[in-house]
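Re: your question from the hallway

Yes, I did run it. Sequences:
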Amino acid sequence: MLKKLLFKNQDKKQLIIAMIGAFMGITFLITSIHYLIKVNEFGEGADILGPNTIIVQKKVSNSSSLNLTKTDFSESEIQKMKNEPFIEDVQPVISNNFDVSFETADPMVPRFRTDVFIQTIDPEFLDVKSDKWHWKEGDEFVPIVLPRDFLVMLNTFMSAQGIPQVSDDLAKDVKFKFTLKNDTDKEWVDARIIGFTNEVASILVPESFMKYGNDKYSTEKEKKITQIMIAGKESEFGRVEEMLNERGLESKNSQMVVGRLKSMVGTLFLVVLGISVIAVFVSGLVLIQYMQLLMSRNAYEVRTLLRIGYPPKMLINHFFIYFVKVFGIISASGLAVFFIFKFFLDEMFESGGLYIDTTLSYQSVLSLLFAYLIFSVASYRNAQKGIFKDY
Amino acid sequence: MNIRFEQVMPFPLSSIKHGEESIWGNKVRFDSGEKVILNASSGKGKSTFTMTTLGLRHDYSGNVFYNDNDIRSMSYEDWTNIRQTKISVVFQDLQLFPKLTVRENLKLKNDLSPVYTEEELRSLLNQLGIANKWNQECGILSMGQQQRVAIIRALAQPFEWILLDEPFSHLDEENTQKCLTLIHQRCDEQRAGFILTTLGDDHGTKYDREQKL
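Structure:
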């Protein structure tokens, strides 16, 4: 009876318009948050280097070939880049300053030996557990990250020898060894692969191993820094790229393409997210305003009910529950349509070659709960204000 | 529950001169169970008295007490309890819900603190000659019929006092007497009192005293 008294006298057209607005806002809010997160996660775990990370060097020009311009990085150059707001971190890539060769040392695999170039980078940039990425003198083996191209080369060699090729996992069980030497000394150190990278052309070793080799076998003075690692912030890749162009730096093209793509799609979803937040906010306001209108249309009924002994809380709850139910219907519909969108969008991404993780991101559900909570609190406060105004 | 008015002066009535017997500006006490006729001409504040007593108007100086509690200090919960179980009222403008039927108007009140069954409510309507209006919207009833519905609604709760603000203004003498019989009966059942405001006519009913405004 109370429901009939309080909610019969309303213009449902306005309510339906507000509900459609909120429904669209909620649907796009969940969708954009979900895909923003999935796009940012894209590429994570595919490489042992962390996400949004690139290795850059200075472009080699004719003048640098003639030693007229430098190709190495000074401390101040690195510091300046670190200070840029879109840069997460910058660290030098340290190279070997001694002769080193790499060979298989496993009876199951034919002997394969080659001189190599080894490098070390800050562990912060590597997507490996820190307990695996360390070495000290006397350790059984030195952990290494191998360029995937190197494995391809090894497999080509093995195929030519008529031996079965090895997979990533199998390669991690194969024993290798480094030979470190200078004119007077020579030493062998066992090595094991702990991961692969597509982004670095050299074998990566822990910093302690590099220091050991450089201290013991180096024939030159301090080595110059010719490569650095840059970690950009999420969706800021355009600015990182701009900086590289301004400073005459270059990176491997595949790294740039992925970064550019992520940045572009991320920005697109960020724009949609912004519009969705505004839509949810505005339609929430319209719903709240509608509630105020409904209460003012029912001012006589509310006042009379209070006068004949109805508790204010009972009336507040009636308005509050009504609008929470309305928002509940909007949210449930928004979530259902999101799942339909997700089904088609995931298929579209997949057919376009973008294998985005299809599991539901908890942040999108959290955003819905957050919007629901905000609306519920606003509805309750509004109902409270409206009822006590007539007390 | 006793009701006391101490030096109460509604601001809109402060420019009018009130006598020593008047409620306004003097000390007046209504003892529990008393049946009082509040007699005054138009514009002397009969409705103001009803609204002030029920805590619906606050534009006055002085103090109103229920027993020893100043009504200004009462909370929302206190007022809800008072309006549900202590003081009932027939407003001068009735304050029914015109879009609801007679049944719905009565049930809306009765369901708060149930006193009557639906059958008993119909029987009360029957005693006042409007049983056939049970499913009609209140808004289409005549003023006299609406007054009778409002009186039954006021009786459909437990109370210690019932405030009746010119409740028979649209009723003929026969229906007035029927209403008064019901009111007396219900007051006696609960040892409750009434304060009946009139324009000078006591309708020949029994009462304990007359109070001037």
